[in-house]
Design brief:
It contains no helices and four strands. The protein is mainly β. The protein is elongated, with a radius of gyration of 14 Å.
């Protein structure tokens, strides 16, 4: 099944907030999304600091 995504499309998934604090202080944030219907085949988490903002980098 192919789903074309355009603009701000929110695909169905289970999402949770993730926050990591590094040893030198920066706060890294992410929102992992896993499939609702099955276990994920792989996982890649790429949290990042938001040095120029206090909000999400959308």
């Amino acid at each position: 099944m192919t789903i074309r995504t355009r603009g701000p499309v929110l695909l169905s998934a289970d999402r949770t907030d993730l926050e990591l604090v590094t040893a030198d202080g920066p706060r890294l944030v992410d929102e992992p999304a896993v499939p609702e219907q099955r276990e994920p085949l792989a996982t890649l988490i790429t949290p990042h600091p938001l040095p120029l903002s206090t909000d999400w980098e959308d």
